[in-house]
Amino acid sequence: MANQIDFADEQPADFIHSERFVAIRSQMHAHLLGRIEELGTEFGRWSRRAIEQFVDLEVEACARLRRVPVNETELRVVAAELTKELVGLGPLEDLLQDPSVEDILINGHEQVFVSRHGLLRREAIRFADNQHVLRIVRRVLAPLGRRVDESNPMVDARLPGGGRLNVVIEPLAVDGPMVSIRKFRQQPLTPDDLTRLGTFDEAIRRLLEAAVKGHCNILVSGGTSSGKTSLLNALAAFIDPAERVVTVEDTAELSLNHPHVVRLEGRHGSFEGSGAVSIRDLLRNSLRMRPDRIIVGEVRGAEVLEMLQAMNTGHDGSMGTIHANSPRECLYRIEMLAGFAGFNGSEGSLRRQIASALDFILQIARLPNGKRRIVSVTEVTGFGDNIVTTQELYRYDSGVAPDGQESEWWTSLGIAPHTPKLARQREQLLPNAPRSLAPDDGAGRGGWFGRR
């Protein structure tokens, strides 16, 4: 009897990932669509509970009439999945509700990859075909007033519950619909959370708190999915509650834990190109909204000039993110974007403006093991010999501890911040040299933290 119970417990998971499940689900879905067509508009007024009962009865009747080879446990699995198909998001529903899921990537109906804790793995969920994928995607887009079809084969949208959806279909996508869903936490990570998770240590935390409270201008630099937005959210926790913060984003992703936030989001144009509102337009307008700080979700175009202007004209404490592989590459990228935006001054004048605008560059990276770490804290110290001068205050290192365990730490050069904005805190921010064991984050990510 015990063996039979174990088999029954394992059967639904094996069944739901099988070809037989896909075939049975398709057969019963066609039956349900026929019954729904008979009901007409009445079906649209039913509650989810009523639809669940309807699906249970119809699935059981269909299996009996068509002699479908399926047991009672499998019938319940098929009914639950078909309910999600009719009133939810089908195979995506459970993934979207899973708090550990960060990214969902669909490469055609046969390949679904999911990122958890920074690691990407193939998921066993299945779509019946590419039309099934498109049906779910269109259900997501419908409440947003967006559409995807041959005339509009590429869509980028913000999900109501927080997150970002990008879809590319044929003829641009060769192997079926390509869907990318980026999820965001309902409760943003705090500085204490990031310290516990090992993104930075206590010394860096003290510096970041002083930098934000001292109205230093900060850019968070890093690659895709390196944790830039999460770090920016955490930094906002240090902002004085009395200050007015304006956020400007192409697709709203920031969720600042602050009482006075004005959120602005760009608008894509129609298929003919009319009606578009760029981040640059929003940044220009934000300067007229009496902001104490301006936060740019991602600097990737002509808005870089308005951001530098804001930082140089009394909006100290502004922050943003940018895609770059190092602090020096971050400065080069700002120059490149300013050039593309039509900056008319000399190279020297542009670099002088960058040097006077920025105070700190925080370089964050996602390591091969999925950990997200601040790998460099760099201060912009000025302009000389026609270059923007910098000094690195902290650098991330890793190695093997004497007991054979992996260890990681931040090496300090022993230099206090140069900026006059932190003159009063300079003595308190001089690094000391303790070394301590960081608590485990619950996923085996504990390790040595400190400086040497």
TrEMBL record:
Pfam families: T2SSE
Residues of the Bacterial type II secretion system protein E domain: 87-370
GO molecular function, one term: ATP hydrolysis activity
Region described as Disordered: spans on this chain: 430-452
Database matches in InterPro entries: P-loop_NTPase, T2SS/T4SS_dom, T4SS_GSP_E_ATPase
PANTHER family: TWITCHING MOTILITY PROTEIN PILT (PTHR30486), TYPE IV PILUS RETRACTATION ATPASE PILT (PTHR30486:SF6)
Family: Belongs to the GSP E family.
Protein name: Pilus assembly protein CpaF
